Amino acid sequence: MGKRSHWREHPAHALRVDHGFRLESFDAAATPGFEGAQKHAERLMERRGADLAELQERLYAHGRAGGDRSMLLVLQGMDTAGKGGIVRHVLGMVDPQGVASRGFGVPTEEERAHHFLWRIDRALPQAGRIGVFDRSHYEDVLVVRVHGLVPEAVWQGRYSEINEWEAQVAERGTTIVKCALMVSPEEQLNRIEERLERPDKHWKYNPGDLDERAHWPAYMEAYQAVLDRTSTPSAPWHVIPADNKWYARLAVTELLASALESLELGWPQADFDVQAERERIARLRSKEV
Amino acid sequence: MGKRSHWREHPAHALRVDHGFRLESFDAAATPGFEGAQKHAERLMERRGADLAELQERLYAHGRAGGDRSMLLVLQGMDTAGKGGIVRHVLGMVDPQGVASRGFGVPTEEERAHHFLWRIDRALPQAGRIGVFDRSHYEDVLVVRVHGLVPEAVWQGRYSEINEWEAQVAERGTTIVKCALMVSPEEQLNRIEERLERPDKHWKYNPGDLDERAHWPAYMEAYQAVLDRTSTPSAPWHVIPADNKWYARLAVTELLASALESLELGWPQADFDVQAERERIARLRSKEV
Protein backbone atom coordinates (compact mmCIF):
# COMPACT_ATOMS: atom_id res chain seq x y z
CA MET A 1 0.00 0.00 0.00
CA GLY A 2 1.40 3.40 -1.02
CA LYS A 3 -0.56 4.91 1.86
CA ARG A 4 1.22 3.08 4.65
CA SER A 5 2.55 5.44 7.26
CA HIS A 6 5.40 3.21 8.49
CA TRP A 7 5.01 4.67 11.98
CA ARG A 8 4.79 1.79 14.41
CA GLU A 9 4.42 4.23 17.29
CA HIS A 10 3.46 7.87 16.85
CA PRO A 11 6.45 10.20 17.40
CA ALA A 12 4.41 12.26 19.88
CA HIS A 13 4.68 9.20 22.11
CA ALA A 14 7.91 7.63 20.90
CA LEU A 15 9.91 10.86 21.33
CA ARG A 16 8.21 12.45 24.30
CA VAL A 17 10.38 12.80 27.38
CA ASP A 18 9.21 10.49 30.14
CA HIS A 19 10.16 10.48 33.77
CA GLY A 20 13.51 8.77 34.05
CA PHE A 21 14.67 9.64 30.54
CA ARG A 22 18.49 9.63 30.36
CA LEU A 23 20.34 11.43 27.60
CA GLU A 24 23.49 9.43 28.27
CA SER A 25 21.85 6.28 26.97
CA PHE A 26 20.23 8.04 24.00
CA ASP A 27 21.05 6.80 20.48
CA ALA A 28 21.24 9.76 18.09
CA ALA A 29 21.26 7.40 15.09
CA ALA A 30 18.02 5.63 16.04
CA THR A 31 14.65 6.14 14.33
CA PRO A 32 12.19 5.60 17.18
CA GLY A 33 8.72 4.48 16.20
CA PHE A 34 9.51 4.39 12.48
CA GLU A 35 9.94 1.09 10.70
CA GLY A 36 10.46 2.30 7.13
CA ALA A 37 13.59 3.25 5.23
CA GLN A 38 14.67 6.69 4.06
CA LYS A 39 12.72 6.39 0.80
CA HIS A 40 9.53 5.64 2.73
CA ALA A 41 10.19 8.60 4.99
CA GLU A 42 10.61 10.89 2.00
CA ARG A 43 7.37 9.75 0.40
CA LEU A 44 5.53 10.07 3.69
CA MET A 45 6.98 13.49 4.31
CA GLU A 46 5.63 14.72 1.00
CA ARG A 47 2.16 13.45 1.88
CA ARG A 48 2.20 14.87 5.39
CA GLY A 49 3.67 18.09 4.01
CA ALA A 50 0.51 18.53 1.94
CA ASP A 51 -1.57 17.89 5.07
CA LEU A 52 0.56 20.37 6.99
CA ALA A 53 0.01 23.01 4.32
CA GLU A 54 -3.75 22.62 4.55
CA LEU A 55 -3.73 22.54 8.36
CA GLN A 56 -1.66 25.72 8.38
CA GLU A 57 -4.17 27.38 6.07
CA ARG A 58 -7.03 26.45 8.39
CA LEU A 59 -5.10 27.88 11.34
CA TYR A 60 -4.51 31.06 9.36
CA ALA A 61 -8.17 31.27 8.34
CA HIS A 62 -9.19 30.92 11.98
CA GLY A 63 -6.84 33.70 12.94
CA ARG A 64 -8.37 35.94 10.28
CA ALA A 65 -11.84 35.08 11.57
CA GLY A 66 -10.89 36.20 15.09
CA GLY A 67 -9.65 32.87 16.50
CA ASP A 68 -6.88 32.96 19.11
CA ARG A 69 -5.00 29.75 18.28
CA SER A 70 -1.38 29.71 17.17
CA MET A 71 1.49 27.25 17.13
CA LEU A 72 5.04 27.61 18.39
CA LEU A 73 7.82 25.24 17.39
CA VAL A 74 10.84 25.56 19.70
CA LEU A 75 14.02 24.07 18.23
CA GLN A 76 17.06 23.42 20.38
CA GLY A 77 20.16 21.41 19.65
CA MET A 78 23.94 21.52 19.53
CA ASP A 79 25.64 23.18 16.54
CA THR A 80 25.00 21.30 13.27
CA ALA A 81 22.09 19.34 14.80
CA GLY A 82 19.97 20.48 11.86
CA LYS A 83 17.72 23.21 13.27
CA GLY A 84 18.06 25.33 10.14
CA GLY A 85 17.34 22.29 7.94
CA ILE A 86 14.09 21.73 9.85
CA VAL A 87 12.95 25.26 9.15
CA ARG A 88 13.96 24.99 5.50
CA HIS A 89 12.54 21.56 4.76
CA VAL A 90 9.57 21.28 7.13
CA LEU A 91 8.29 24.83 7.34
CA GLY A 92 9.32 25.27 3.71
CA MET A 93 6.33 23.07 2.84
CA VAL A 94 3.77 25.63 4.03
CA ASP A 95 2.78 29.12 2.95
CA PRO A 96 5.46 31.62 4.05
CA GLN A 97 2.67 34.08 4.95
CA GLY A 98 1.67 31.81 7.81
CA VAL A 99 5.13 31.27 9.27
CA ALA A 100 7.20 33.60 11.44
CA SER A 101 10.69 32.22 11.87
CA ARG A 102 13.04 33.78 14.38
CA GLY A 103 16.58 32.93 15.40
CA PHE A 104 17.93 33.79 18.85
CA GLY A 105 21.63 34.47 18.95
CA VAL A 106 23.74 36.19 21.59
CA PRO A 107 21.45 38.81 23.16
CA THR A 108 21.94 42.42 22.09
CA GLU A 109 22.76 45.10 24.63
CA GLU A 110 19.10 46.14 24.70
CA GLU A 111 17.97 42.55 25.22
CA ARG A 112 20.49 42.02 28.02
CA ALA A 113 19.06 45.04 29.81
CA HIS A 114 15.71 43.21 30.10
CA HIS A 115 14.50 40.01 31.75
CA PHE A 116 15.62 36.97 29.71
CA LEU A 117 12.04 36.24 28.60
CA TRP A 118 11.48 39.77 27.28
CA ARG A 119 12.84 39.21 23.78
CA ILE A 120 11.16 35.80 23.62
CA ASP A 121 7.75 37.10 24.62
CA ARG A 122 7.90 39.81 21.94
CA ALA A 123 8.60 37.18 19.27
CA LEU A 124 5.55 35.00 20.01
CA PRO A 125 3.45 34.21 16.93
CA GLN A 126 0.29 36.19 16.24
CA ALA A 127 -3.02 34.34 16.25
CA GLY A 128 -3.26 32.11 13.18
CA ARG A 129 0.50 31.80 12.69
CA ILE A 130 3.12 29.15 13.18
CA GLY A 131 6.08 30.64 14.99
CA VAL A 132 9.46 28.95 14.89
CA PHE A 133 12.25 29.64 17.35
CA ASP A 134 15.70 28.54 16.18
CA ARG A 135 17.23 28.48 19.67
CA SER A 136 15.16 30.16 22.34
CA HIS A 137 14.86 31.03 26.03
CA TYR A 138 16.45 27.63 26.70
CA GLU A 139 19.82 29.13 25.78
CA ASP A 140 19.46 30.97 29.09
CA VAL A 141 19.79 27.66 30.94
CA LEU A 142 22.13 26.00 28.41
CA VAL A 143 25.04 28.14 27.16
CA VAL A 144 24.49 30.45 30.13
CA ARG A 145 24.75 27.56 32.60
CA VAL A 146 27.69 25.87 30.85
CA HIS A 147 29.73 29.08 30.78
CA GLY A 148 28.49 30.48 34.09
CA LEU A 149 27.34 33.70 32.41
CA VAL A 150 25.09 34.49 35.38
CA PRO A 151 25.33 33.29 39.00
CA GLU A 152 23.96 29.80 39.66
CA ALA A 153 21.15 31.16 41.83
CA VAL A 154 19.89 33.08 38.80
CA TRP A 155 19.87 30.25 36.27
CA GLN A 156 18.55 27.81 38.85
CA GLY A 157 15.46 30.02 39.19
CA ARG A 158 14.86 30.11 35.46
CA TYR A 159 13.44 26.60 35.07
CA SER A 160 10.34 27.44 37.04
CA GLU A 161 10.10 30.87 35.43
CA ILE A 162 10.10 29.16 32.05
CA ASN A 163 7.44 26.67 33.13
CA GLU A 164 5.17 29.42 34.42
CA TRP A 165 5.63 31.56 31.32
CA GLU A 166 5.01 28.64 28.94
CA ALA A 167 1.87 27.66 30.84
CA GLN A 168 0.54 31.19 30.39
CA VAL A 169 1.42 31.20 26.70
CA ALA A 170 -0.38 27.89 26.23
CA GLU A 171 -3.35 29.19 28.21
CA ARG A 172 -3.66 32.12 25.80
CA GLY A 173 -4.03 29.75 22.84
CA THR A 174 -0.52 28.88 21.63
CA THR A 175 0.26 25.21 21.23
CA ILE A 176 3.93 24.75 22.11
CA VAL A 177 5.90 21.96 20.39
CA LYS A 178 9.39 21.66 21.87
CA CYS A 179 12.02 19.63 20.00
CA ALA A 180 15.56 18.94 21.12
CA LEU A 181 17.56 17.69 18.14
CA MET A 182 20.31 15.38 19.35
CA VAL A 183 23.30 14.69 17.16
CA SER A 184 26.16 12.39 18.21
CA PRO A 185 29.60 13.95 18.72
CA GLU A 186 30.97 11.82 15.84
CA GLU A 187 28.30 13.00 13.43
CA GLN A 188 28.76 16.59 14.58
CA LEU A 189 32.45 16.42 13.73
CA ASN A 190 31.60 15.05 10.28
CA ARG A 191 29.20 17.92 9.68
CA ILE A 192 31.65 20.55 10.90
CA GLU A 193 34.31 19.07 8.64
CA GLU A 194 31.95 19.09 5.67
CA ARG A 195 31.38 22.82 6.12
CA LEU A 196 35.14 23.27 6.07
CA GLU A 197 35.60 21.31 2.86
CA ARG A 198 32.95 23.20 0.88
CA PRO A 199 33.65 26.86 0.06
CA ASP A 200 29.87 27.40 -0.32
CA LYS A 201 29.50 26.35 3.33
CA HIS A 202 32.37 28.36 4.78
CA TRP A 203 29.96 31.07 5.88
CA LYS A 204 28.38 28.52 8.21
CA TYR A 205 31.72 27.45 9.65
CA ASN A 206 32.56 28.98 12.99
CA PRO A 207 35.85 28.06 14.68
CA GLY A 208 34.04 28.64 17.98
CA ASP A 209 31.91 25.54 17.32
CA LEU A 210 34.96 23.35 17.95
CA ASP A 211 35.62 25.22 21.20
CA GLU A 212 32.05 24.62 22.32
CA ARG A 213 32.48 20.92 21.52
CA ALA A 214 35.03 20.71 24.31
CA HIS A 215 32.15 21.40 26.71
CA TRP A 216 30.04 18.49 25.40
CA PRO A 217 29.60 16.74 28.78
CA ALA A 218 28.58 20.00 30.44
CA TYR A 219 26.07 20.65 27.66
CA MET A 220 24.61 17.16 28.05
CA GLU A 221 24.22 17.80 31.76
CA ALA A 222 22.51 21.11 31.03
CA TYR A 223 20.20 19.47 28.45
CA GLN A 224 19.37 16.71 30.93
CA ALA A 225 18.33 19.36 33.47
CA VAL A 226 16.16 21.08 30.84
CA LEU A 227 14.43 17.81 29.99
CA ASP A 228 14.00 16.85 33.67
CA ARG A 229 12.67 20.20 34.78
CA THR A 230 10.80 21.81 31.88
CA SER A 231 8.89 19.00 30.20
CA THR A 232 5.38 19.87 31.37
CA PRO A 233 1.88 18.77 30.36
CA SER A 234 1.26 22.07 28.57
CA ALA A 235 4.68 22.09 26.86
CA PRO A 236 6.35 18.66 26.77
CA TRP A 237 9.78 18.06 25.29
CA HIS A 238 10.46 15.70 22.41
CA VAL A 239 14.01 14.46 21.99
CA ILE A 240 14.73 13.78 18.35
CA PRO A 241 17.65 11.66 17.17
CA ALA A 242 19.22 13.83 14.48
CA ASP A 243 22.07 11.82 12.97
CA ASN A 244 19.62 10.87 10.20
CA LYS A 245 18.34 14.16 8.86
CA TRP A 246 15.50 12.45 7.01
CA TYR A 247 14.21 10.98 10.26
CA ALA A 248 14.41 14.24 12.20
CA ARG A 249 12.58 16.16 9.47
CA LEU A 250 9.85 13.56 9.17
CA ALA A 251 9.41 13.41 12.94
CA VAL A 252 9.03 17.19 13.27
CA THR A 253 6.61 17.26 10.31
CA GLU A 254 4.49 14.63 12.04
CA LEU A 255 4.65 16.35 15.44
CA LEU A 256 3.51 19.65 13.93
CA ALA A 257 0.82 18.10 11.73
CA SER A 258 -0.65 16.07 14.57
CA ALA A 259 -0.55 19.05 16.96
CA LEU A 260 -2.52 21.06 14.38
CA GLU A 261 -4.93 18.18 13.80
CA SER A 262 -5.64 18.01 17.51
CA LEU A 263 -7.02 21.57 17.34
CA GLU A 264 -9.82 20.17 15.14
CA LEU A 265 -10.20 23.39 13.19
CA GLY A 266 -12.83 23.31 10.48
CA TRP A 267 -13.08 26.11 7.94
CA PRO A 268 -14.59 29.24 9.50
CA GLN A 269 -18.30 29.74 8.86
CA ALA A 270 -19.29 32.52 6.48
CA ASP A 271 -20.15 35.69 8.42
CA PHE A 272 -22.20 36.95 5.45
CA ASP A 273 -25.32 35.78 3.62
CA VAL A 274 -24.05 33.44 0.89
CA GLN A 275 -27.29 33.50 -1.09
CA ALA A 276 -27.54 37.29 -1.00
CA GLU A 277 -23.95 37.52 -2.29
CA ARG A 278 -24.74 35.08 -5.10
CA GLU A 279 -27.59 37.34 -6.17
CA ARG A 280 -25.36 40.42 -6.10
CA ILE A 281 -22.92 38.66 -8.42
CA ALA A 282 -25.72 37.57 -10.75
CA ARG A 283 -26.96 41.18 -10.96
CA LEU A 284 -23.44 42.39 -11.74
CA ARG A 285 -23.09 39.82 -14.50
CA SER A 286 -26.42 40.68 -16.10
CA LYS A 287 -25.46 44.38 -16.12
CA GLU A 288 -22.13 43.67 -17.75
CA VAL A 289 -23.45 41.57 -20.62
CA MET B 1 15.90 21.15 -25.54
CA GLY B 2 14.65 20.76 -21.99
CA LYS B 3 16.70 23.81 -21.03
CA ARG B 4 14.89 26.31 -23.26
CA SER B 5 13.74 29.30 -21.32
CA HIS B 6 10.83 30.24 -23.64
CA TRP B 7 11.39 33.90 -22.80
CA ARG B 8 11.58 35.81 -26.05
CA GLU B 9 12.09 39.04 -24.13
CA HIS B 10 13.15 39.20 -20.49
CA PRO B 11 10.25 40.22 -18.22
CA ALA B 12 12.41 42.93 -16.64
CA HIS B 13 12.12 44.63 -20.03
CA ALA B 14 8.81 43.29 -21.30
CA LEU B 15 6.92 44.30 -18.14
CA ARG B 16 8.75 47.44 -17.09
CA VAL B 17 6.67 50.59 -17.21
CA ASP B 18 7.84 52.89 -19.97
CA HIS B 19 7.01 56.50 -20.57
CA GLY B 20 3.60 56.60 -22.21
CA PHE B 21 2.39 53.31 -20.73
CA ARG B 22 -1.43 53.26 -20.62
CA LEU B 23 -3.29 50.89 -18.31
CA GLU B 24 -6.51 51.33 -20.32
CA SER B 25 -4.99 49.47 -23.27
CA PHE B 26 -3.40 46.79 -21.09
CA ASP B 27 -4.35 43.16 -21.70
CA ALA B 28 -4.52 41.29 -18.37
CA ALA B 29 -4.71 37.95 -20.21
CA ALA B 30 -1.50 38.48 -22.19
CA THR B 31 1.83 36.78 -21.51
CA PRO B 32 4.37 39.42 -22.57
CA GLY B 33 7.77 38.15 -23.62
CA PHE B 34 6.88 34.50 -23.04
CA GLU B 35 6.31 32.21 -25.97
CA GLY B 36 5.71 28.91 -24.19
CA ALA B 37 2.55 27.29 -22.86
CA GLN B 38 1.56 26.76 -19.24
CA LYS B 39 3.40 23.44 -19.04
CA HIS B 40 6.61 25.10 -20.20
CA ALA B 41 6.13 27.85 -17.64
CA GLU B 42 5.69 25.30 -14.86
CA ARG B 43 8.85 23.43 -15.81
CA LEU B 44 10.80 26.65 -16.10
CA MET B 45 9.48 27.89 -12.78
CA GLU B 46 10.76 24.78 -11.06
CA ARG B 47 14.20 25.32 -12.55
CA ARG B 48 14.31 29.01 -11.74
CA GLY B 49 12.90 28.25 -8.30
CA ALA B 50 16.01 26.18 -7.59
CA ASP B 51 18.15 29.08 -8.79
CA LEU B 52 16.15 31.46 -6.62
CA ALA B 53 16.70 29.25 -3.58
CA GLU B 54 20.45 29.29 -4.11
CA LEU B 55 20.54 33.02 -4.82
CA GLN B 56 18.57 33.64 -1.64
CA GLU B 57 21.06 31.55 0.33
CA ARG B 58 23.94 33.59 -1.05
CA LEU B 59 22.17 36.79 -0.08
CA TYR B 60 21.61 35.39 3.40
CA ALA B 61 25.23 34.29 3.67
CA HIS B 62 26.34 37.80 2.71
CA GLY B 63 24.10 39.27 5.35
CA ARG B 64 25.62 36.98 7.96
CA ALA B 65 29.09 37.98 6.80
CA GLY B 66 28.29 41.66 7.35
CA GLY B 67 26.99 42.56 3.87
CA ASP B 68 24.30 45.23 3.59
CA ARG B 69 22.29 43.96 0.61
CA SER B 70 18.66 42.97 0.84
CA MET B 71 15.72 42.62 -1.51
CA LEU B 72 12.20 44.03 -1.26
CA LEU B 73 9.32 42.75 -3.36
CA VAL B 74 6.39 45.16 -3.36
CA LEU B 75 3.12 43.57 -4.48
CA GLN B 76 0.12 45.68 -5.40
CA GLY B 77 -3.06 44.73 -7.19
CA MET B 78 -6.83 44.74 -6.95
CA ASP B 79 -8.55 42.12 -4.77
CA THR B 80 -8.05 38.57 -6.10
CA ALA B 81 -5.17 39.67 -8.36
CA GLY B 82 -3.09 36.89 -6.81
CA LYS B 83 -0.74 38.67 -4.41
CA GLY B 84 -1.09 35.93 -1.81
CA GLY B 85 -0.53 33.25 -4.44
CA ILE B 86 2.75 34.93 -5.42
CA VAL B 87 3.98 34.78 -1.83
CA ARG B 88 2.85 31.19 -1.47
CA HIS B 89 4.16 29.84 -4.77
CA VAL B 90 7.18 32.03 -5.52
CA LEU B 91 8.57 32.79 -2.08
CA GLY B 92 7.46 29.32 -1.02
CA MET B 93 10.35 28.00 -3.12
CA VAL B 94 13.02 29.50 -0.85
CA ASP B 95 14.10 29.00 2.75
CA PRO B 96 11.53 30.59 5.10
CA GLN B 97 14.40 31.80 7.30
CA GLY B 98 15.41 34.19 4.54
CA VAL B 99 11.98 35.66 3.86
CA ALA B 100 10.05 38.25 5.86
CA SER B 101 6.52 38.56 4.51
CA ARG B 102 4.30 41.35 5.71
CA GLY B 103 0.74 42.34 4.79
CA PHE B 104 -0.46 45.92 5.10
CA GLY B 105 -4.16 46.26 5.85
CA VAL B 106 -6.14 49.20 7.15
CA PRO B 107 -3.72 51.09 9.43
CA THR B 108 -4.12 50.67 13.18
CA GLU B 109 -4.79 53.66 15.40
CA GLU B 110 -1.11 53.78 16.35
CA GLU B 111 -0.06 53.64 12.69
CA ARG B 112 -2.49 56.41 11.76
CA ALA B 113 -0.95 58.63 14.41
CA HIS B 114 2.36 58.50 12.47
CA HIS B 115 3.51 59.55 9.00
CA PHE B 116 2.24 57.07 6.38
CA LEU B 117 5.76 55.75 5.75
CA TRP B 118 6.41 55.01 9.45
CA ARG B 119 4.93 51.51 9.49
CA ILE B 120 6.51 50.74 6.12
CA ASP B 121 9.98 51.82 7.13
CA ARG B 122 9.83 49.64 10.26
CA ALA B 123 8.98 46.61 8.13
CA LEU B 124 11.98 46.88 5.78
CA PRO B 125 13.97 43.63 5.46
CA GLN B 126 17.16 43.20 7.44
CA ALA B 127 20.40 42.77 5.52
CA GLY B 128 20.50 39.36 3.83
CA ARG B 129 16.72 38.95 3.70
CA ILE B 130 14.03 39.09 1.07
CA GLY B 131 11.16 41.22 2.32
CA VAL B 132 7.73 40.95 0.75
CA PHE B 133 5.03 43.58 1.10
CA ASP B 134 1.52 42.34 0.32
CA ARG B 135 0.09 45.83 -0.28
CA SER B 136 2.29 48.66 0.86
CA HIS B 137 2.72 52.42 1.11
CA TYR B 138 1.05 52.58 -2.31
CA GLU B 139 -2.30 52.03 -0.60
CA ASP B 140 -1.79 55.59 0.67
CA VAL B 141 -2.17 56.87 -2.91
CA LEU B 142 -4.65 54.18 -4.05
CA VAL B 143 -7.52 53.40 -1.64
CA VAL B 144 -6.81 56.70 0.11
CA ARG B 145 -7.10 58.64 -3.14
CA VAL B 146 -10.13 56.74 -4.44
CA HIS B 147 -12.07 57.27 -1.21
CA GLY B 148 -10.71 60.72 -0.41
CA LEU B 149 -9.49 59.57 3.02
CA VAL B 150 -7.14 62.55 3.23
CA PRO B 151 -7.31 65.92 1.46
CA GLU B 152 -6.04 65.95 -2.14
CA ALA B 153 -3.12 68.23 -1.24
CA VAL B 154 -1.90 65.52 1.13
CA TRP B 155 -2.03 62.56 -1.23
CA GLN B 156 -0.71 64.65 -4.11
CA GLY B 157 2.43 65.27 -2.07
CA ARG B 158 2.95 61.59 -1.36
CA TYR B 159 4.24 60.57 -4.80
CA SER B 160 7.42 62.55 -4.38
CA GLU B 161 7.73 61.54 -0.73
CA ILE B 162 7.59 57.91 -1.86
CA ASN B 163 10.19 58.47 -4.57
CA GLU B 164 12.59 60.12 -2.13
CA TRP B 165 12.10 57.45 0.50
CA GLU B 166 12.56 54.60 -2.00
CA ALA B 167 15.72 56.21 -3.37
CA GLN B 168 17.15 56.29 0.16
CA VAL B 169 16.18 52.70 0.81
CA ALA B 170 17.85 51.62 -2.44
CA GLU B 171 20.92 53.71 -1.56
CA ARG B 172 21.25 51.80 1.73
CA GLY B 173 21.46 48.47 -0.13
CA THR B 174 17.90 47.26 -0.69
CA THR B 175 16.99 46.29 -4.23
CA ILE B 176 13.33 47.18 -4.72
CA VAL B 177 11.25 45.11 -7.15
CA LYS B 178 7.78 46.60 -7.59
CA CYS B 179 5.06 44.53 -9.21
CA ALA B 180 1.50 45.63 -9.98
CA LEU B 181 -0.61 42.54 -10.67
CA MET B 182 -3.38 43.42 -13.07
CA VAL B 183 -6.46 41.26 -13.32
CA SER B 184 -9.36 42.00 -15.68
CA PRO B 185 -12.73 42.86 -14.12
CA GLU B 186 -14.24 39.73 -15.70
CA GLU B 187 -11.60 37.44 -14.21
CA GLN B 188 -11.92 39.19 -10.85
CA LEU B 189 -15.65 38.44 -10.79
CA ASN B 190 -14.92 34.78 -11.59
CA ARG B 191 -12.45 34.60 -8.72
CA ILE B 192 -14.79 36.29 -6.26
CA GLU B 193 -17.55 33.91 -7.28
CA GLU B 194 -15.26 30.92 -6.82
CA ARG B 195 -14.58 31.96 -3.23
CA LEU B 196 -18.32 32.11 -2.68
CA GLU B 197 -18.93 28.64 -4.07
CA ARG B 198 -16.28 26.92 -1.95
CA PRO B 199 -16.88 26.74 1.80
CA ASP B 200 -13.12 26.32 2.30
CA LYS B 201 -12.68 29.74 0.64
CA HIS B 202 -15.45 31.60 2.49
CA TRP B 203 -12.92 33.04 4.91
CA LYS B 204 -11.35 34.87 1.97
CA TYR B 205 -14.68 36.22 0.77
CA ASN B 206 -15.37 39.79 1.73
CA PRO B 207 -18.64 41.42 0.63
CA GLY B 208 -16.73 44.70 0.61
CA ASP B 209 -14.71 43.46 -2.40
CA LEU B 210 -17.81 43.83 -4.58
CA ASP B 211 -18.34 47.36 -3.25
CA GLU B 212 -14.74 48.24 -4.13
CA ARG B 213 -15.31 46.86 -7.62
CA ALA B 214 -17.80 49.65 -8.25
CA HIS B 215 -14.84 52.05 -8.04
CA TRP B 216 -12.86 50.22 -10.73
CA PRO B 217 -12.37 53.24 -13.06
CA ALA B 218 -11.21 55.40 -10.13
CA TYR B 219 -8.76 52.69 -9.09
CA MET B 220 -7.40 52.43 -12.62
CA GLU B 221 -6.89 56.19 -12.64
CA ALA B 222 -5.09 55.96 -9.29
CA TYR B 223 -2.91 53.09 -10.53
CA GLN B 224 -2.09 55.03 -13.70
CA ALA B 225 -0.91 57.95 -11.54
CA VAL B 226 1.24 55.58 -9.46
CA LEU B 227 2.85 54.14 -12.59
CA ASP B 228 3.34 57.58 -14.16
CA ARG B 229 4.81 59.19 -11.09
CA THR B 230 6.66 56.55 -9.06
CA SER B 231 8.44 54.37 -11.61
CA THR B 232 11.99 55.56 -11.04
CA PRO B 233 15.43 54.27 -12.05
CA SER B 234 16.10 53.04 -8.51
CA ALA B 235 12.64 51.47 -8.12
CA PRO B 236 10.87 50.86 -11.44
CA TRP B 237 7.37 49.40 -11.70
CA HIS B 238 6.56 46.19 -13.52
CA VAL B 239 2.96 45.69 -14.58
CA ILE B 240 2.12 42.01 -14.63
CA PRO B 241 -0.90 40.60 -16.44
CA ALA B 242 -2.47 38.35 -13.82
CA ASP B 243 -5.41 36.60 -15.48
CA ASN B 244 -3.08 33.64 -16.01
CA LYS B 245 -1.73 32.84 -12.58
CA TRP B 246 1.00 30.65 -14.04
CA TYR B 247 2.33 33.55 -16.05
CA ALA B 248 2.27 36.03 -13.16
CA ARG B 249 4.10 33.58 -10.87
CA LEU B 250 6.74 32.76 -13.45
CA ALA B 251 7.26 36.44 -14.25
CA VAL B 252 7.78 37.39 -10.58
CA THR B 253 10.11 34.40 -10.08
CA GLU B 254 12.19 35.60 -13.01
CA LEU B 255 12.17 39.24 -11.87
CA LEU B 256 13.38 38.26 -8.40
CA ALA B 257 15.95 35.76 -9.62
CA SER B 258 17.44 38.17 -12.15
CA ALA B 259 17.49 41.02 -9.61
CA LEU B 260 19.44 38.75 -7.25
CA GLU B 261 21.75 37.62 -10.05
CA SER B 262 22.56 41.22 -10.85
CA LEU B 263 24.04 41.61 -7.35
CA GLU B 264 26.72 39.13 -8.44
CA LEU B 265 27.15 37.72 -4.95
CA GLY B 266 29.70 34.94 -4.65
CA TRP B 267 29.97 32.91 -1.47
CA PRO B 268 31.63 34.91 1.31
CA GLN B 269 35.34 34.26 1.83
CA ALA B 270 36.37 32.34 4.95
CA ASP B 271 37.40 34.73 7.71
CA PHE B 272 39.38 31.94 9.38
CA ASP B 273 42.41 29.85 8.44
CA VAL B 274 40.99 26.82 6.63
CA GLN B 275 44.19 24.77 6.94
CA ALA B 276 44.55 25.47 10.66
CA GLU B 277 40.96 24.35 11.20
CA ARG B 278 41.59 21.16 9.24
CA GLU B 279 44.48 20.41 11.57
CA ARG B 280 42.35 21.05 14.65
CA ILE B 281 39.79 18.55 13.37
CA ALA B 282 42.52 15.99 12.61
CA ARG B 283 43.85 16.36 16.17
CA LEU B 284 40.35 15.89 17.58
CA ARG B 285 39.87 12.75 15.53
CA SER B 286 43.20 11.26 16.59
CA LYS B 287 42.35 11.87 20.25
CA GLU B 288 38.95 10.24 19.89
CA VAL B 289 40.21 7.04 18.31
Automatic annotation (TrEMBL), chains A, B:
SUPFAM superfamilies: P-loop containing nucleoside triphosphate hydrolases. It comes from the Bacteria. Residues 41-261 form the Polyphosphate kinase-2-related domain. One of its GO terms (molecular function) is polyphosphate kinase activity. Coiled coil: none annotated. Keywords: Kinase, Transferase. One of its GO terms (biological process) is polyphosphate metabolic process. This is Polyphosphate kinase. It comes from Demequina activiva.
